[in-house]
């Protein structure tokens, strides 16, 4: 009986030994060192790494035959119990990760606060790596040359970090690479010509870096490329004609560089036939918009804004019947809008501002039934009146017709847009008469700009009905009376909807005691300068907790400065010059630590200027013209 018990215990021991698993020593050390480098893991995944069998650890995957670790899958964004989770890890990546030399996937993207560098020897020790995802962390340093030895690499995500230095010249050796995303870093230097050897590449994203030089001449060799984004760099010279050979390309973003020369794509029909999104804005492109642009029949968005393009808009644009957004602003385009524009039936947004386009507008625009936003500002249209057909476009919600030569009173036809209009800009025209009372019926209006016109009389009290108004700009007119109705506007939002208010350069003569009392407490920009306002600056102005700019200069405001203004810690610009303010500058204003611009000159202030920042940062001109003021930066006070 005793022998049977001993035999049973021996079998049990042997079974336990045989069934106990442990990692390969290299894998175990590499993962333990990785965990040791992490000071905080909000997901709690690393806390579960306790036994010696790392193949059972969360986020770790092993090959069933070899038992070696092949995946580290610990992304910051993942799903747990069918709910999305954003995890954060604080710490530094251990170079010991290269001990796991059977790794095929490393995904530690979007962990937000993970630091460190790519191990210099990564390419020497991880020959099987197919995917490397470091995106959305705080990694720094150069991209090691050994990356080029990762011959099996298919996906490389290094975007949104702090990597610096140059792209490795040898990057063309990664023949299996399909996705190369290194955008949003601080990489400099040229794009290596060898990158054009990556013929399997489908996505190349290098935007938001400091890259210089030209776009590689043979970029057209990347026949599998579907997405090319080189925007927001400092690339120069011309756009290579070989880009027209990218038959699979769908997204092409070259905007915000210093590219020059003419637009030479596509060269002939059939090229770039899959292109849906083309951004070339904010460059130095010249010449005309080519007629061949009409071959890009798959285009949905086209932006050529802010270049040096001249000549007329080609009629072939009408062939782009899938286009939803067209941006041509800030060029030197001339002539009339082509009638063919009426064929772009899917168009939602048309922006052609700041050119020299002439009138009349083609009536064919009236057939754009889906058009939501129209910007024709600052052209040579000399419209005189707004065409009635324009105001009857059924989807129109944003109208920008600044500087279009519109004259007379505002047309009542605009009332038909009462339930749809979100933004209306008729500034810098020759409009006159009163602002109509029906303006208060535009119940969804968010932005209203009537500045630089010749409006007279008072602001209609009906503006109090504009519950969604966020921007109101009426500066440089001949308006008079009270400004208080604006501060009493109803709002759907707690603290009010109004964030930007400019009533400067008019003839308002009221007191301003309603500021901060009517529920509009989210104002960030408030300019009432160059009027005839009187009375005191109310204590209630201290309730504007988001205020960044306050300009009440060139008025007739008197009495003392309210101490409550010192509580507006967000204030960056305070302009109160040329008034009749009296008394001392409150000591509480020393709390205005964000103040960057200050002018209290030409008032009747007195006493010692409070000593300390921010006042010590301003010149004497900020306080001059107040006979009773003294102390730095003015001469010292007399004892």
From TrEMBL:
Pfam families: LRR_1, LRR_14, LRR_8, LRRNT_2
Keyword S-adenosyl-L-methionine listed: no
GO molecular function terms noted in the UniProt entry: ATP binding
Keywords assigned: ATP-binding, Leucine-rich repeat, Membrane, Nucleotide-binding, Repeat, Signal, Transmembrane, Transmembrane helix
The keyword Hydrolase appears for this protein: no
InterPro entries with a match to the protein in the record: Leu-rich_rpt, Leu-rich_rpt_typical-subtyp, LRR_dom_sf, LRR_N_plant-typ, LRR_R13L4/SHOC2-like, RLP_Defense
Domain Disease resistance R13L4/SHOC-2-like LRR, residue spans: 270-484
Domain Leucine-rich repeat-containing N-terminal plant-type: 24-63
Classification via SMART domains: LRR_SD22, LRR_TYP
GO terms under biological process: defense response to fungus
Signal peptide, first to last residue: 1-20
Protein name: Leucine-rich repeat-containing N-terminal plant-type domain-containing protein
Organism for this UniProt entry: Anisodus tanguticus
């Amino acid at each position: 009986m005793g022998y049977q018990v001993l035999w049973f215990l021996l079998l049990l021991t042997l079974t336990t030994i045989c069934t106990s698993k442990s990692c390969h020593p290299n894998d175990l050390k590499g993962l333990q060192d990785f965990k040791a480098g992490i000071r905080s893991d909000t997901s709690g995944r690393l806390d579960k790494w306790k036994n010696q069998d790392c193949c059972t650890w969360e986020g770790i995957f092993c090959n069933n035959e070899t038992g070696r670790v092949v995946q580290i899958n610990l992304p910051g964004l993942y799903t747990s119990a069918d709910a999305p989770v954003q995890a954060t890890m604080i710490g530094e990546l251990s170079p010991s990760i290269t001990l796991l030399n059977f790794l095929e996937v490393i995904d530690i993207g979007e962990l937000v606060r993970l630091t460190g560098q790519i191990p210099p020897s990564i390419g020497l020790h991880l020959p099987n790596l197919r995917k490397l995802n470091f995106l959305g962390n705080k990694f720094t340093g150069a991209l090691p040359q050994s990356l080029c030895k990762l011959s099996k690499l298919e996906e490389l995500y290094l975007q949104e970090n702090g990597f610096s230095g140059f792209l490795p010249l040898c990057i063309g050796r990664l023949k299996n690479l399909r996705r190369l995303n290194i955008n949003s870093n601080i990489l400099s230097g040229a794009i290596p010509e060898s990158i054009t050897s990556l013929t399997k590449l489908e996505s190349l994203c290098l935007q938001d870096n400091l890259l210089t030089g030209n776009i590689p001449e043979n970029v057209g060799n990347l026949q599998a490329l579907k997405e090319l984004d080189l925007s927001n760099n400092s690339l120069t010279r011309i756009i290579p004609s070989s880009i027209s050979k990218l038959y699979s390309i769908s997204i092409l973003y070259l905007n915000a560089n210093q590219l020059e020369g003419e637009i030479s794509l596509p060269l002939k029909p059939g090229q770039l036939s899959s292109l849906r999104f083309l951004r070339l804005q904010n460059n130095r492109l010249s010449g005309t918009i080519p007629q061949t642009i009409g071959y890009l029949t798959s285009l949905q968005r086209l932006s050529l804004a802010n270049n040096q393009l001249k000549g007329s808009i080609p009629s072939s644009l009408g062939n782009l019947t899938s286009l939803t957004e067209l941006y041509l602003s800030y060029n030197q385009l001339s002539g009339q809008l082509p009638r063919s524009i009426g064929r772009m039936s899917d168009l939602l947004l048309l922006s052609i501002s700041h050119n020299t386009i002439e009138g009349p507008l083609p009536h064919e625009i009236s057939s754009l039934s889906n058009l939501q936003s129209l910007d024709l500002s600052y052209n040579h249209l000399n419209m005189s009146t707004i065409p009635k057909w324009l105001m009857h476009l059924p989807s129109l919600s944003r109208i920008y017709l600044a500087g279009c030569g519109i004259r007379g009173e505002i047309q009542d036809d605009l009332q038909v847009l009462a339930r749809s209009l979100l933004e209306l800009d008729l500034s810098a025209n020759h409009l006159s008469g009163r602002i109509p009372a029906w303006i208060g019926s535009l119940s969804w209006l968010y932005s209203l700009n009537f500045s630089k016109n010749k409006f007279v009389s008072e602001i209609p009290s009906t503006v109090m009905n504009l519950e969604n108004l966020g921007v109101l700009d009426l500066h440089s007119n001949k308006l008079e009376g009270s400004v208080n109705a604006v501060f009493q506007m109803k709002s759907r939002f707690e603290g009010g909807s109004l964030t930007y208010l400019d009533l400067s350069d008019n003839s308002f003569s009221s007191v301003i005691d309603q500021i901060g009392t009517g529920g509009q407490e989210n104002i960030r920009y408030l300019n009432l300068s160059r009027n005839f306002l009187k009375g005191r600056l109310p204590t209630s102005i201290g309730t504007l907790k988001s205020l960044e700019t306050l300009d009440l200069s060139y008025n007739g405001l008197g009495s003392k400065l309210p101490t409550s203004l010192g509580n507006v810690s967000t204030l960056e610009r305070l302009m109160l010059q040329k008034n009749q303010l009296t008394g001392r500058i409150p000591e509480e204003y020393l709390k205005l630590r964000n103040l960057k611009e200050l002018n209290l000159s030409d008032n009747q202030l007195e006493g010692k200027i409070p000593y300390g920042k921010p006042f010590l940062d301003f010149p004497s001109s900020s306080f001059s013209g107040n006979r009773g003021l003294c102390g730095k930066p003015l001469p010292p006070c007399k004892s």
